[in-house]
Write a structure and sequence with these properties.
This protein has 551 residues and is an alpha+beta fold. The chain is built from 22 helices and 13 strands. It has three domains: 90 residues, Tyrosine recombinase, N-terminal domain (DNA polymerase, domain 1); 150 residues, Orthogonal Bundle (hpI Integrase, Chain A), CATH 1.10.443; 222 residues, Restriction Endonuclease. It starts with a helix and ends with a helix.
């Protein structure tokens, strides 16, 4: 049943049941909000899970009270159980709000991935502005074309139609906004439906973000509200006081925003300890961000104090040439190594991450993980440094056309790093893929599994086709077709197959030597690809991190 038809039908049904006008109005408001949230062509077909999803959304939104949520449940119960005769278990829906815990934020690398995945200019600008100016969805859809002070980088922000604050959208978005205005030519609202020129809907904005967040690992844990939390966290990282940021975005609810991850800490110090005995006061471990470190300006007196209290700083810098980027990268890699370990060893965790990706395969989950962590391939495969192509995903087209346009895809297309770069190919299967058949071919002799031999044939064919289709010298281009000043060569390229796990050969009392030797002899006698198991790849990644720490 279409929404436009359903609205009149429902209103008439409410009146048939002799509800008061005020109750009819309240029920219609909640039901219309529900329709807008799901944006469905057939509201009658919506499931109970989709209804509970909406109620969960209301509970997570701070401005909906418990009585309001009860009204919403009652309105939907009337519609689906009394009008549509569904017999849904509404009584089982708990109204208790989830406890306010630490609010997640989206990291800057994750934000870049999300924004770069949105190719539509209008959609990209919508999500960019929400983050750039710390907007709620309701504030974004109220923006008018006249609220844009382009020459000052200022956006006037409204609540209930009235301007109540301004926010700087930065220099980066200027060109994008200018292009958007030229192409889309909005008449009144800054973002309009193309046909009616009415304000863009909240559900459309959420749908843009919900599609884009699937491009990052664990993206399902984020909602569009996390863009605003990230805006606050990243401003604090730049050195702004949390109270100033909250005042800037026009909020009085300090408690909610003080619970953003990384912004709250316990006070375990009394200032009286430094009042009478400053020489022996308790040392505080004050953590500052990389952004704050770049902006710190010391007076001569402060610099002298810093070096007096930390005499090893100069020695450390001379010996190690430490850079903030090195520390940040190492911390990220150690965190991702733990993620790698959990995906390998914790089946429940692996399944939960697979569920978050939606209807995708196990191979796709590993593809997403390796897309985020190309550094894992960077050292170890055969001790040749390897990296992804500049500005390109590791999954690339290699036959039919070229990896600079369209055609057959390979799981990983990387390059060796050196004075001259050459292409290398990676095929990714799962860690649970069998390496050998279940039964021996002859006594003490085991055949490779169909999955293993098939994958070997697959990547060999891919390499052969790439040699036929690609020139020996390739000048890389970006998504706009512009040269990237990068050239890679193709002469008998290296190839690797990531598959299975050596634990397949472990038994209760040790290693099954006949199985392991059959597998080892098979992979050693194949010229290409080099076969690497997931546990071997994990150990090599761990070695890389240990090596970096020792440096």
């Amino acid at each position: 049943m279409k929404v436009s038809i359903a609205q009149n039908f429902i209103e008439n049904k409410l009146k048939e049941f002799n509800f008061q006008d005020s109750t009819v109005k309240t029920y219609m408001i909640w039901q219309n909000r529900f329709f807008e949230y799901h944006n469905s062509d057939d509201i009658k077909a919506l499931s109970f899970n989709e209804i509970t999803e909406y109620i969960t959304f209301l509970k997570n939104e701070n401005h909906y009270s418990k009585p309001s949520i009860r009204q919403a449940i009652t309105a939907l119960e009337f519609l689906y159980n009394r009008v549509f005769e569904r017999n849904y278990p509404f009584k089982k829906i708990k109204i208790k709000r989830p406890e306010q815990t630490i609010h997640l934020t989206i990291s800057k690398p994750e934000l870049i991935t999300i924004l770069d995945s949105i190719k539509n200019l209008k959609h990209n600008l919508i999500i960019s502005l929400i983050y750039a100016c710390g907007l709620d969805v309701s504030e974004l859809i109220e923006l008018r074309k006249s609220d844009l002070l382009f020459d000052k980088n200022i956006l006037k922000i409204r609540k209930y139609g009235k301007i109540y604050r301004e926010s700087n959208f930065g220099d980066y978005l200027k060109t994008k906004i200018d292009s958007y205005l030229e192409i889309y030519k909005p008449k009144y609202y800054l973002f309009e439906n193309d046909s009616s020129h009415e304000a863009y809907s909240k559900s459309s904005v959420r749908n843009i973000f919900n599609r884009a967040k699937l491009n990052i690992l664990n993206g399902e844990q984020y909602s569009i509200k996390h863009l605003k939390f990230s805006y606050v966290k990243h401003l604090v990282n730049e050195g702004f006081q949390l109270t100033d940021v909250i005042n800037h975005i026009g909020l009085k609810n300090y408690e909610v925003y003080s619970k953003i991850e990384g912004l709250n800490s316990r006070v375990e110090f009394s200032p009286i300890d430094s009042l009478y005995n400053p020489k022996n006061r308790k040392k505080l471990n004050i953590q500052i961000t990389d952004e704050q470190a770049e902006n710190i300006v010391f007076t001569d007196h402060q610099s002298k104090k810093l070096l007096e209290n930390n005499p090893n700083i100069i020695k450390s810098f001379i010996e190690n040439d430490i850079k903030n980027a090195d520390i940040t990268a190492l911390g990220f890699r150690k965190k991702q190594l733990k993620e790698f370990e959990k995906l390998l060893n914790d089946k429940d965790y692996f399944d939960s991450q697979l569920d978050k990706l939606g209807n995708r395969s196990k191979e796709n989950l590993w593809q997403v993980f390796f897309e985020k962590n190309t550094w894992i391939f960077g050292f170890g495969l055969n001790y040749v440094f390897i990296s992804n192509l500049e500005g390109k995903k590791i999954e690339q087209v290699v036959s039919g056309y070229t990896f600079n346009s369209n055609g057959k895809r390979v799981d990983g297309l990387l390059k060796t790093r050196g004075i001259i770069s050459t292409l290398c190919f990676i095929e990714i299967k799962t860690n649970s893929t069998s390496l050998l058949n279940n039964k021996p071919y002859r006594n003490d002799c085991w055949n490779p599994s169909n999955e293993l031999s098939g994958a070997v044939s697959q990547i060999q064919k891919t390499v052969q086709k790439s040699i036929n289709n690609l020139p020996t010298q390739n000048i890389l281009k970006d998504s706009m077709g512009n040269p990237t000043n990068e050239t890679v060569f193709l002469y008998q390229p290296k190839s690797f197959l990531i598959i299975g796990n050596l634990s397949e050969f472990k038994t209760e009392y040790g290693i099954n030597e006949s199985k392991f030797s059959s597998f080892e002899l098979y992979r050693q006698n194949i010229n290409s690809p080099e076969i690497i198991t997931y546990d071997e790849l994990y150990e090599r990644a761990k070695f890389l991190i240990i090596n970096e720490e020792h440096k």
